[in-house]
Structures
1.
Amino acid sequence: MPRSNHKINSLIIKGGHKKKITWLNILNAGANEIAYLRREFNFAPEDLRDATVNITALHAKVKGRENYIFLAIRFPYYSQENETINGAEIDFFIGHDLLVTLHDNKINLLKKLFDGYQKQNGKQITPIDSSVDLYYQITDKLLDWSFNLLDDMSKTIDDIEDTIFSHKSRSAVTTLLDLRRNAINFRTITKNYQMVFEKFEKLRAEAGLSDSHTPFPAVIDKTKDLWNTIENRQEMLEALYATNESILNYRLNDIMKTLTIFSVIVFPLTLLAAIFGMNTLNGMPFINHPLGFWWIIAIMLLGSFSMLLFFKRKGWM
């Protein structure tokens, strides 16, 4: 291990039966780090190319090799910069007593886990007897991280629900759209988790990589729970969005109804004003009458009152 390369962090974890598991945690792998992995561990060039942080996999990759398994998978994280949930790729090389992780530290949980193992000086509270045990422990923490993101989303959804029903539906539109986008991103990122872990387990068994302490079904169950939870959140968001749209449409219709009633009530006034504003003095009633102005005002008010009474009887107001 080159001591001068600060991007490559090495840790020896003491397992049972005097076994030692090496964990290499690499941040922002560049050409030097990739060359080191190719030279020291003989990883396949195409796997190392996929593990370069500048190339983000749009879908998960699981490949079984002669002496290791390569896995590239995205995990969700919340970006403070654009306030959205995005996916950060983490690449794993899992071999016999060897685990290599490559990432760009957007999900800083991985570095915290590494630092936590370092502070324990290789003495683990949870038994680790193989690189697969270590991989599953890391994955389990990353899945918990995803659940925490969903919990934060749920709190925001509850706040939006209160906002919608407190007559502030207009201000909730932007937040609802952002939440829908985040739910879609989260769903896209986590969609294939179950398939990925099932394929990994199959390749692990074929390669003879042991997992002494990690119950594989528990990991699969957690991915199912994660998927069901995000599905429920998305359904809730769609229901809230539809409810908010209904409230906005109802208020818009109510405003249009009020404006329509007002325009119809004012119509007799406008009509009579237009008629008596014509330049045809001969034969125009009330023109020469001393109370003609007040007669015209009375007729206008009578017409408006009649329209108002008509709407009232129809139950339109």
Note: The longest strand covers residues 68-79.
2.
Amino acid sequence: MADSINYQLAKFVASYGKVSQIPESTCPEVSFVGRSNVGKSSIMNKLFGRKNLVKVSSTPGKTSNINFFEADDVHFVDLPGYGFARRSKAERDRWAELIGDFFDSERSFNLVVSLVDIRHDPSKLDHDMIDYLQGNEFNFIVCLTKADKLSRTQQARQAAAIKKQLNVPDENVIITSSQTGTGIDELKKRIAEACL
């Protein structure tokens, strides 16, 4: 197998409202998880080199299903964003359950990409997510998004603070920007290492 994934082949596979509907894993999987407005769709589109393969919503928290994409026999899983306040509690609970059920299911979790906005301190939900991934020994990296909004100095300072707050090692953190493409090659490298 080649040592890189051909992202040109990326395509949408299916969307699932319940974990029980998702077919078993038949190939490596990379899951993307993060807060509603963290820029998950934008990062995935940048990875795939496509403008809008992954729907970018003007309303944060719009993705309420688990969406599967595929490139070169690797599945990319777009999980619903968590913690958007303007949704009803019932809906937020459904998402929490959906994400929880997904991570509790028997799948090929080759890599989990946990996205955190570099401009802010991690939220309680970000902490919960990372604690969960660490506690269950998932292979994960933290992708700091929206780096183009900060200067280089600010990026370094914020990245150091976030690593410390989340208690994750340096090598597990990538500074990214879907606008400038910062960190995308590094992200591709980490995905290839985990999947190929």
Note: Residues 41 and 55 are 6 Å apart (CA to CA).
3.
Amino acid sequence: MSKPVTRAIILAAGLGTRMRPLTNDRPKPLVQVAGKALIDHAIDRLVAAGVTTIVVNVHYHADQIKAHLAKRKDVEIRISDESDAILGTGGGIVRALPHFEGEPFFVHNSDTIWTEGFGHALERIKARWNPDEMDVLLLMASLVTAMGYEGRGDFMMSPDGKLARVPEGRLSPFAYPGVYIVHPRLFDGAPKGTFPMMVLWEQAIAQGRLYGIRLDGVWMHVGTPEAVKEAEAYIADLAPA
């Protein structure tokens, strides 16, 4: 039986260029959706799932994020400052690794929100996590219900949850919504400096240790001003009259 996953990192260091003009004077994690900053949607989910320590990496308008997070008293928040360089998703996590002390942790993008279906997604991913057979467990969203996503799918998923890249010319019914559990050993021998996580996911695929679990709900990728409006309209429709 693996230990509970109680640590997380929220990736909040991006420039938010696709979210302009909303990000002209603020970082994307502080853009509001349905009256709540995107980063607070992520923090609330993680806290509800039993996470007690959250690392937030910062770069663009870092001081604004730090000031906003200082108001949170319900969870320990640590800052991983990347003001000196843009490190990408992989490099940013490598810099924050000492905070996890060798234990598996959640990774959560700051521009992803969802409505729950059957059960709670983070509880389901925790229950499925098995560090003996996997190094990474990605939450996967169905393209049938995904909002704000314009890709052709990100991975193929076998019945047991094992993930593979989408073959050339094929489509996948699943998109990766930016949430997963990872074991720190995945970063052994990782590149120095800036790099994307896909570099390490490719290694995990080759070793048969990249898995996924389906989100039983509606995922909203909130990456543009139009996606903000779409997400808010959908959430408003769900609210009781």
Note: The chain has a mean pLDDT of 91.
